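Objective 1b. Sequence-to-structure analysis of Sterol desaturase family protein.
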Amino acid sequence: MSHTDEHLKAGPSKEWNWHPDLPVAVTPLFSWPPNPMATIRWFATNWLPMTEFMIYALMAWATWAWLVPPLEQMQHLSWGWVLQLWARNLILMIIFAQGLHLWLYGWKKQGDDFKFDRRGLAKNARIFLWDDQYWDNVTYALLSGVTIWTLYDAIVWMGYANGWAPMITVKSNPIWFFALFLLMPAIQSLHFYWLHRALHIPWIYKRVHSVHHRSVSIAPWSGFSMHPVEHIGYMGLLLIFLVVPAHPIHFIFMGYWLALATATSHAGFENLVLGDKAHLKIGSFHHQLHHRYFECNYGNPEMPWDNWFGSYHDGSPEATDRVRETKKRMHAS
């Protein structure tokens, strides 16, 4: 039996401080033959009872209810309401990224339990601003990331306020309102995979995406630490709400998923422990493999794009050997 056929149980290994069960699981929605029960369990695991997706959905509802300027105020561009959006995004990014950073790396509340990589954040490393990975990541995330996120926010909110963007209500489109929440993972995964593959074209990688990949050992601030050009492409998915009929809650949810979820997906830990057991799944070992081996897992587990296009790394030694050969060919020059 080869390594790719074995199911390796969660725990430490030669390469990792800790890893989940291998091979890395992706959504069973597109598996063949179809497995309806596995698909139902996958959706339930991602949405019920209190998961990261559900937290963002509840936050989006609360934001729409209490933290959005009146639509009539956003019909015309002005510093007042745009700065209000910017301040809200800035505060939320700090709460999520710095909160996780302090819990996992500053206060070390759960030690190395569920931590993927044995290494910590880089210090005295000249590739980073001020030779420090933490401050480098914070600077790119807040100055570039939050600002560009807010610019897209402002464009779409003006669309809703002026009738450019098609807006639905729960009452007018109840089925589509709930179905869109289930479709958004597929939409985001499609955009992320193909944008990410383009960013790994060597010429683009060297000038743009390498800023993000300097963080080989990732932490919460690493996820939203990108070159401004990458932020423009990554957060640009928000512009789909200028053409896709949606409620503003969907738009807010997508913004939180794109921006805030980078802190959890790059946390470097599989689970957030609040007590004597794992309470919330946060990290993505699928993406952790990408940060270690680079030319693999360009997408995310929500859609099997990597499986379909030959860039999937399932955590096995054979996959590591294959990806290293791919990297040598791509960057030979």
